[in-house]
Amino acid sequence: MTAVLPDAEKPATPAGPKPKSASTAAKEGLTGHVASAVALVIAIVWTVPTFGLLVSSFRPEADVKSNGWWNFFTDPNVTLDNYREVLSGGSGGTGLGENLINSIVITIPAVLIPISLATLAAYAFAWMDFKGRDTIFVAVFALQIVPIQVTLVPLLQLYVDPPFNLMPLAGRDAPAGGLYELWLSHTIFALPLAIFLLHNFMREIPGELIESARVDGAGHVQIFTRIMLPLMAPAIAAFGIFQFLWVWNDLLVALVFSSPEVTPLPQRLVLLVGERGQDWQLLASGAFVSLIIPLIVFIALQRYFVRGLLAGSVKG
Q1: How far is residue 293's CA from residue 316's CA, in Å, rounded to a whole number?
Q2: CB of 216 closer than 8 Å to CB of 140
């Protein structure tokens, strides 16, 4: 006869540790002591040059040109002459106020236009079924590998002498170099990445939500405006910050397509040093003047920026 042991007397089965998922292992690795120490070292190395630039912006010209910024701590000498000269224009005689306004006028449309077009295109690629959709999306994605430098001369030729006898953007008798050329160029360069990122974000939205809206009689316009846009706010804000910083700090496109009437701030900063480079000590002060507005934009949209970067990483 086989004896049946009570539940309390049954030998306990040793329970082994549960296997960790890949996401849990990655989270533990990125939040460990070693990872935190590495991140701290990287943050310090990244911050020291910026701090040195800030210190140099308040040092007199003679000190800037004679020794390094770290000598400020042994012989502190603070002045606002660099900022006064930057705002008054330095040796060029023209302040940065007009160039600051030019950068704002260039940057805001260059951010809003590609976002508006990319959200519509991303919705079409993600939730509308049409012939050749996948092929066109791959072609748009492949445009990201085209170097900007390769497109500058063809674009400039199209602006000056457009095909089909179209009117040039700047007028028949005016050379290219207005705001329209800058807006279109930045839009063209931003659209492939914007469509790719927003498309991937849209595909993470549950399809049941879209089907429920269609059952209730909603069309594509209502689904896009009432469902997609509110849910896409973090992704749009994240890309908007990247695009704003890229356009605001751009020098290459501005050198090719801008005119003296619409010179942006980065192009003007290069001219601050003078024809012979004698005023290069003003670059530190000019850099921090140009940093103010991007810093305000980033702080204002920081919470959306973080949510946009993490969007799609966790399903729930």
Answers
A1: 36
A2: no
CA distance 221 to 227: 10
What is the model's pLDDT at position 278? 66
pLDDT tens digit string along 251-269?
Answer: 888 888 888 788 888 888 8
Per-residue confidence at 159, pLDDT binned at 50, 70, 90? confident
The structure tokens listed for 279 are 């005023």
C-alpha to C-alpha distances, 128 to 121, 199, 223, 282, nearest whole angstrom: 10, 12, 12, 53
Compute the distance between CA of residue 4 and CA of residue 65 in angstroms, rounded to an integer.
Answer: 92
pLDDT score recorded for residue 200: 86
Question: How far apart are alpha carbons 245 and 190 in whole angstroms?
Answer: 12
Q: What is the pLDDT of residues 183-210, one digit of tens each?
A: 989 999 999 989 988 888 888 888 888 8
pLDDT (average), residues 140-158: 86
The pLDDT tens digits of the residues spanning 267-277 come to 888 777 665 55
